[in-house]
Fold this sequence. Notes:
By secondary structure, the chain is mainly beta. Helix content is 13%, strand content 38%. A hairpin with a 5-residue loop joins strand 3 (34-40) and strand 4. It starts with a strand and ends with a helix. Bound molecules: zinc ion (ZN). Residues 14, 16-17, 19, 40, 42-43, 45 line the site of zinc ion.
Amino acid sequence: MSLVTTPTSTLATCGYCGSVRVTSISMTLTDGTPVDFASCHTCERRSWSASGSALALNSVLDRARKIK
Length: 68
Ligand SMILES: [Zn+2]
């Protein structure tokens, strides 16, 4: 799995517990899909989204696997 990461310092809010202790990272998957990864430090939930809608982890991994 190869991801090109572009760290940003966006202030995000956890969609599960509402905590602002969230690390949000924007990155581009191997197939060119721009996604946002959010990791909550309070409830330890991690979520992916693309263009504002939630992405399933499997979907992210599928896209990241398309290397060629
Ligand atoms: Zn949370």
